[in-house]
Structures are given as C-alpha cells and as structure tokens.
Amino acid sequence: MTVHRLPGLIDPHVHLREPGGTHKEDYATGTAAALAGGITLVLDMPNTYPPTTDAGLLAEKRALAAPGARCDVGLYLGASRDNAAQVAEAAPGAVGLKIYVNETYGPLRIDDLSTLMAHFRAWPKGKPIAVHAEGLAVAQVIALGILYGQRVHFCHVSRKAEIELIAHARQKGARITCEVTPHHLFLTEADADRLGPFGQMRPSLATPYDQFALWTHLDFVDCIATDHAPHTVEEKRGVPPPPGVPGLETLLPLMLTAVVEKRLSLERLIELTVTNPARIFGLSGQPDTWVEVEIGPTWEITEQGLFTKCGWTPFAGMPVRGRVLRTCLRGVIAYEEGRILAKPGQGRVLFS
Ligand code: NCD
Ligand code: ZN
Ligand code: ZN
Ligand code: ZN
Q: Given pLDDT bands bounded at 50, 70 and 90, which one contains residue 225?
C-alpha cells in the first residue's frame, strides 16, 4: 500500500442541478461529493431550469453557488435557439459556452445549422465551446470550429469512430480537445443491460470494441470528466428514465485502479485531471490544495456513505484499488476519512 498526494482535481463536466433540480442535487451536496472524490474545482453545466442562457441568469446562478459551494465552481453559459445575440455579453462570467447538438436531458438542444453558425460566429474567441456531439455531429462540429476559428472541447467522447476522427483532426492541426468519462472507460452495453435505467445516460454505454478504442487512444484524450448527472432513484425507475449517472465520488477509485493495472501512469492521470483542464479552461491554480489517496488495497464501491443527494452509483459492487483519504482546499482540510469538513460557502465561484 502507498499513500500519494496529488493536486486537487478539476472536473470540467458536472451537473449540480441548481436552480430547478435541487431534489436531485444542490451546490452543497454536489460539492461535498466532489471533495469526497478528491475534486476541488468543478465546472457546472447550464442545462438547469431555467437554463443559464444570459448574463442575468448567470448572475442568478452565481448567487446560488456562492453560499452553497464547498469547493470551487465555474459556470458554463448555455447556447439556445434564440440567445446567440446575448452570449458575448455574458462570456466574461462563464468558463465556456456549452452547445447540445444531440438529444439529451434538458431544454438546450440545437440541431439547426444556421443557429449553430450564429453561435460559432458570436462567441468571443479565447474561451472554449464545449459540445455534446455524437457520431456524425462530431465531424460537423470539427468543421464549424475550423471555419469560425473557435476552440472546441468535445464532451464525453464514447465511440471508436469519434475518438479516431478527433485524433485524426488533431494530427491535422485542428484546435480541438476532448474528454472521456469513467463510465465509458469502465462500463459497456452489457452493464447497461444489467443496470437497466441506472445504466442509461447520453451518450449510451457502448461496445467493448468502442471501450477498447478509448483506452488505446488515451494519448489523444485531454481530460477525464465525470459528467456527474444525478437523478433520483424514483425518477430513474420512471418511464422514460432521465439519462445520466452520478460520478464525482468514483472517478479517482476507478482511475487509480487503472494506474495499479498499468493502463496509465499516475503522472498521466494528473495531466488528465488537473493540468489539462486548467489549461483548456484558463483556470489558475488553487494554492495549498491537494488530495491524499491510498493505492493498492482492494475494496468495493458501495452506495453507503455517498454524499451525492441521489444516493446511488452505477459502480456499486465493483472492486477498486484506490481511495481518497483526505482532501485539502486552500490549506483547510475539506474531507477526511468519510467526513465532510468544508462548509457551504467555503468554495469560490470563478470569474466573479
Ligand atoms: C446529462 C444530464 O442529466 O444533465 N445526462 C446525461 O445522460 N449525460 C446531460 C448531458 O450531459 O448530456
Ligand atoms: Zn507519489
Ligand atoms: Zn452531454
Ligand atoms: Zn453532462
């Protein structure tokens, strides 16, 4: 057994559900889950109710996050069918613009070419455009990024063809980055059958062949992001179940297992979870911020003691080889041995 100290992790893709979804998660519970997972900065998605689509709504969300957050939080602005004229004004308060090209949870889907063009034209250059794009839409968005000179970040890449296309575009000089999730790295469609609605998310779990391609193309992956997307057990049992699974508390146990299995080095894991997200989203470092992890002994992921309000995980029962011992944010212990010590409001909201 060894204990290692890593810098606090940055998760560029989480859904903390405020406003409008606080029965699923809120800033206080979601950031507690982050700290328990060794994550000290999360970038929060705009598909809330109402969605975060202009400067006023961004300010309202900031006013909810500031007193609730136990770790640091950055906020995305959401692209909608009718807000392209407003995004530039709101950009200084956001970490990036989020565009949903395919159907998923929330009201923000845009599949119309002229609206997409308007957003790629309007967004001030510098901060990334993060995109939910699957299949052919990946190729379309690569083209838009090149044509409008925008930096595109692909969320939750899950298929062999997608990661191959992204790798190829990068070799040709396209300014694109991408993330993959632990659930697409560790689960497949066989798990989706076993888990029923608790294994349903967008993009859906894929074949072992797709999963293998993500691992073999890890050199072209910039970030591991959880896409922490909590829904209640009751909602997941409903018809149809909303897509999404929680992930903040299981990223490090799973990825440290991959380190033990020599699928990647600890140094590479730090690039994927700290250095690269900081660079892509222009985030300054958090001084005196670290996470202490234990690597080696086997334990089993359970639903007991989770801090996410939804109270479940698709990884329950999975044996893992790493766990978070304690997390420190700006010199103050925020999580230790199963207990959250950070208070709501101790986290900072970026760009405020
Ligand atoms: C996300 C959610 O629930 O907000 N769901 C999901 O299945 N990933 C939306 C998203 O990230 O696409
Ligand atoms: Zn070490
Ligand atoms: Zn998505
Ligand atoms: Zn998401």
A: very high
Indicate the pairing of strand 332-336 with strand 72-78. Answer: unpaired
What pTM was computed for the model?
Answer: 0.98
Tokens standing for residue 171: 């070799």
Residue 197 Cβ < 6 Å to ligand 1: no
Q: Is the dihedral of CA 320, 250, 346, 279 positive or negative?
A: positive
Distance from C-alpha of 227 to C-alpha of 229, rounded to nearest angstrom? 6
Q: Grade residue 195 by pLDDT with cuts at 50, 70 and 90.
A: very high
Q: Report CA(295)–ligand 2 centroid distance (Å).
A: 10
Backbone φ, ψ for residue 326 (5° rounding):
-155, 155
Ligand 1: residue of 13, 42, 47 to mutate (most ligand atoms within 8 A of CB) is 47
